[in-house]
Amino acid sequence: VVMPVRLTIRVEAHEGVSAFMPAYLPGKDQLGIKVVSAFGRNREKFGLPTVIGSILLLDAKSGMPMAIVDGTYVTAVRTAAASAVATKYMAREDASTLGIFGSGVQGETHLLAISEVRRLDGVVVNSRDPKRCEDFCERMSKKTGIKVRSGRPQEVAESDIVVTATTSKTPVFDGSWVKRGTHINGIGSHSPQARELDERVVSSARIIVDSLEANLKEAGDFLIPMAEGRFSKEMIYGELGEVVLGGKRGREKPDEITLFKSVGLAIEDVSTAAAVYAKAKSLGVGREITL
Description:
With about 290 residues, the chain is an alpha/beta fold. Helices cover about 35% and strands about 25% of the residues.
């Protein structure tokens, strides 16, 4: 796999960031790039999603563009799928409550994905927008048949499984609230200056990441406490691929805190976009354009 670490451009004047994520999978002859932007004020200023993305899929034999795929939905689905895989291997078998920070599309896809790997009795959600949070809870309760309700940050953090899916630049909960045996999926922050988790969480958890190289360049959850001398890269136990392949264990003891930190991998986007393109061709959907 050829996958350079993402190139990021910060747009400070408009409180945004754009990232450029190329990848080439030689074994499948898949080549492409995702451009994804996160602009924190999009919803209030323009009525647009906070995160917007597009994936350009190229013919690996000629370099010709083959498809432009909606990267916003692909990002939400593939991120949640990775978290669900991590939850399968890292959460306690009897984990039955889910707490979600954030009521956006990532919160929705994570609820759906995690409910496929654990039997959930209840879900509690916290968001900076109370109205949006209540709408989310009502919609997802109907969609899943699971009781989904809003709650205080401490209630969310005390769940068996916790998902942080926000655009916050500072920790969204106090690490002392986390119970022994909790599993956390940290997916919202992916820049050196931002973190959703405090040093108490990252220093007390068994940590698995999607990519060690990418996390050590992009994950403020680790880089900020490292700069303060409160964390070291040796405290990261391994990568999710190693766990899935059986080289390392996601959980050793029922009472340990486990953390999966994801910054997102371009290979996930390109391979998913290739699958979407193949499916669209077989169904005869989509629109052909001449460049």
